[in-house]
Predict the structure.
Amino acid sequence: MNYIKHLNAIFQRFSKDSSLNATHISVYMALFQSWNIHRFKELFYIHRDEIMEMAKIGSNPTYHRCLRKLHDQKYIQYLPSHNPYKGSRVRMFIFDASSKQVVNKHESTSKQALTPLINLNKQNKDINKLELPENENEVLIFFKNKNWPELEGRKFYNHYTSIGWLVRGKITIINWHATAENWMLKVNDFQNQSSVFQNSDNLQTTKYKNYAEPL
């Protein structure tokens, strides 16, 4: 995939598409960057917080409206997930200067060849592989990028390695990044609760009280 030709073609389409605004384009470019990070995989997982941060969007409804618009206008294929342990997926349609579209290595010379949504699950069995960390170092780097201590990353890796990367003993983790972020949220909640209990014990009294002293 020639990304220079792709970007040239996509900006030509943007300039002619009056239904899009700057926010739609910003979300698309954030998706393109994520696609680049995933080495231009045909189908890849996205993380809402990361895309919103790159696109400089602070509203969840705006973010989802932009994704739906880009999907409806055939710039992307958006496959949302309602599972907190499994991120949503995106397919980026390929464009070039001659307005050709390549999907699954088949080329169409006139119209974009769009894969029907109904057949996605059948065609993407090999694409939808488990995305687990290759080793402990990959987890430690992820935690470091999130400004979390190395010790917490080791705890996370050791815990899920010991249980075979399963949730509730039967659900296989597909997106370990989302699972790690949930781990961080739970640690924060636990620490906040602990501080409340500690502060509640700040009132110290002595066993012997001189009631002749004024209050």
Remarks:
- The chain is about 45% helix and 10% strand.
- The longest strand covers residues 88-92.
- The beta strands are 44-46, 76-79, 88-92, 101-103, 106-108, 166-167, 171-172.
